């Protein structure tokens, strides 16, 4: 089967790799000049354990399975990573019930090692931490996302797959038992198409002749800002507050050198056009970041926060609605053979990528 995968972020590369390793002829088309320049380049690089998501959801299943696959892949391919663990903290008694709820979800999802610990034990592990209780997640980690994508590209090409950069797909329509794609003045016939275009997934779906337009979900953009920290590292593991609407709270993450950064927050955008997004981080947001951080790290030095970078979450629901699950539209859902759309693949998309890839390959081969 000849398959074209649209999008060379971490999910698109993982899908292309999975299909090529199953013996299919694969092209991964990317509009940009390099791999992973969109959502994948602007994440927190966290390997999530899988305890936040409702049991039975695609997020829960693919996060847990994807995390296990990802650690094995990183170990076998020399991708820099660290299973550093994290603490989700309650800074007041009212938040302890939230931690208990997360613990129940995590256990239902099969997450290993979760444990609710008292504030004294948490502070013994992280002396700079302020909390009354914490949920310990030993399976959480961090990864060099660009090295991961390069390794996925390497496997893709080793299995005979091809990466086509500067290749923007303008539309596609059915042709025989397959699809004909349009890009610029050129066309290409393939047997199957996977839409892993991230922020552009809805636009591409609307450009598919014969695809039911009512099945294209809305795109809601939420900007996540990050701040670096000029202070010396004060923690050895990731620190997360209780979740907030639209995200997991302004948390402390570490890079592989041990440097601290904070974010993302949730800034709902008025535009639904990814091309209109301003990725600059407003320095004025430092005040709200500092207030959130000092709830669990009172010792944050004054003036230590430095604007870093921002990313965009391709959400399917807005601030007034419950968070949507990943949405995978394959032939069983829309009735068109050889076509899979991936919508709303935000966090934990990086963690879930290898599991999502096998799911997509299964759907095309069914």
UniProtKB/TrEMBL annotation:
Residues 3-363 form the FAD dependent oxidoreductase domain. InterPro entries: FAD-dep_OxRdtase (IPR006076), FAD/NAD-bd_sf (IPR036188). Its cofactor is FAD. Keywords: FAD, Flavoprotein, Oxidoreductase. This is L-2-hydroxyglutarate dehydrogenase. The keyword Flavoprotein applies. The keyword Flavoprotein applies. It comes from Methylobacterium organophilum. SUPFAM superfamilies: FAD/NAD(P)-binding domain. Belongs to the L2HGDH family. Pfam families: DAO. The gene is lhgD. Signal peptide: none annotated.
